[in-house]
Amino acid sequence: MHRRLLSLTAAAALVLGTSAAGAATTQYPADTDPAGSLTPLGTHHSGQFDESAAEIVAFHAGTQRTFVVNALSGQIDVLDASDPTSPVQVGTIAAPEGVVNSLSVREDGLVVAAIEAPTKTDPGHLLFADATTLQNLGTVEVGAQPDMVSISPDGAYAVSADEGEPADDYSADPEGTVSVVTLPDELTAPGQEAVRTATFHNWEENGPRDLPEEVRIFGPEVNADRPVSANLEPEYVAIDGTTAYVTLQENNAIAVVDLIGAQVTDLWPMGFKDHSQPGMGFDASDRDDAIAIEPQPVLGMYQPDGIGAYSAGGQTYLVTANEGDSREWGDYAEGARVKNLGKDGLAPICEDAPAAALTGDADLGRLNVTLENGLREDGSCYEQLYSFGSRSFSIWTPEGDLVFDSGDEFERIVAEALPEHFNSNHSESNFDGRSDDKGPEPENLAIGQVGDRTYAFIGFERVGGVIVYDITDPTAPEFVRYTNERDFSVSAEQEIDGGADPADVLRRAGDLGPEGVAFVDATDSPTEQPLVITGNEVSGSTTFFAVTVDDEDGSGPGPDPEPTEPAPTEPAPTEPPSEPAPTDAPGTDPPGDSPAKKPTGDLPGTGATVSPWWFALGAALLAGGGLLARRRLGS
User: Fold this and answer.
1) What's the pTM value of the predicted model, to 2 decimals?
2) How many CB atoms are located within 10 Å of the residue 619 CB?
């Protein structure tokens, strides 16, 4: 029987992790170990702080090795993962001059890495190497700033998202493109003739395709020849069959690419999340000394970084980690705090706007919003506020229909698990430090099959940790468990700035800033149990986790962890955070009666249906007379 976890009122405890690092591990809830849960096994430490020394990770079953992007060092670190409780570096793959951004490994051991040029607006390259010998097999040229590369499931194509960000001073802005490289059957590098480029030229002004209105095109126009193509910035790739789905993060859109024809066939906007709806709120202030997760008169731009694809009921679904991002190059800055609207030449909030009276620091005043959306037609004032990212994950159809959004669940779970370090930053340990920006900041995800269930493993870049959801039913995902391999008693940046040895500090601090997440199937795993691997860019650590399986799945348990002593328990808040239930809350049909709706720009009556999980929680809180709880620190 599949073991499901729903309780959000169980205590969250800190115990010493089983990783070699010995960092404190938060498991929430702590009193159960449902299928899909993560248990830390071992960690490799680079000893490099905030140098992007462990970003994207990929596991190769044939060699039992894990390949880790060490971005600014310009190399790929290669770890022997045959014993995931004690991963050891056994070599490196040196990249050509430039920055390593991403990698992927084919089943036969063909390693493909995305290399950004020293001048990022110049064309980048894909590097090919042998997973066994670590020999560099050659390179091909692709578009500017290849930010992510993925290999199709059949091994026939390598696909890179060529982001094409502007120059740091905004003096140049190359086109964003998607490179489709036909791979040879042999373990060798392809020739340059195998590279084809999918462009966005059809969506330029007077082109054959109409650009959807909600696809965000904004900022200085320095590429007069192809302004739309230059503005679109491919970020991440998910592949299903011969179709690639590419996130355009800043543009809040998805591009659909036909790999056979190497053409962009569709471009759809993601719309906006209505944060005014019950179950869709967030904590907007880092200066209120409180956990205050409430509906707000704000629309959130999904702006996903990571994306994955999976099949359920014979249909393809897309899963996005809705991180959010803004542009800031040269003299141009897209974002501003709400309280600064109306100052220094910025348009004010319209007097009749819902947020007009909420500009104090304890309300919306500290929140970062975009200056590019929400202006009244005459440009006189902001009638609507738009924030970066949606602090959630979402499930979509390939055509762009929203099936599910996790609402405010991420922040509520973090509030329960880490009440003293809610919305902490990654480089230092603090309370509420990221509430004014993007909260936990869901960065990336991996999707894996365990038994007959499908799980999403989603990394939180700022507060850290991986949250697990059962997404077998895409219309009703279930929260499973949250695991954070981080010791908040160690504030890394402060200790290192104070002269402490970075390697020692990072070993004690644990995982900071998970950037890459990879799933290893039980059939490929050295433990014969599924694994999840994270690359943590701030701590420079790579951590291996065992995935809990049910006994009847036949996978059996993983290696027994070494005995550990319990660490001090972090107290749970006096009252769990909750929201007041409106008298006539929209969208309260029984679960399954109606599909989630794609949010629109109209307030208040729209938004994705709240998940059944939220209703179960809300009912329990209301039964206990719970109203919105604010936890005050100190007196």
Assistant:
1) 0.86
2) 11
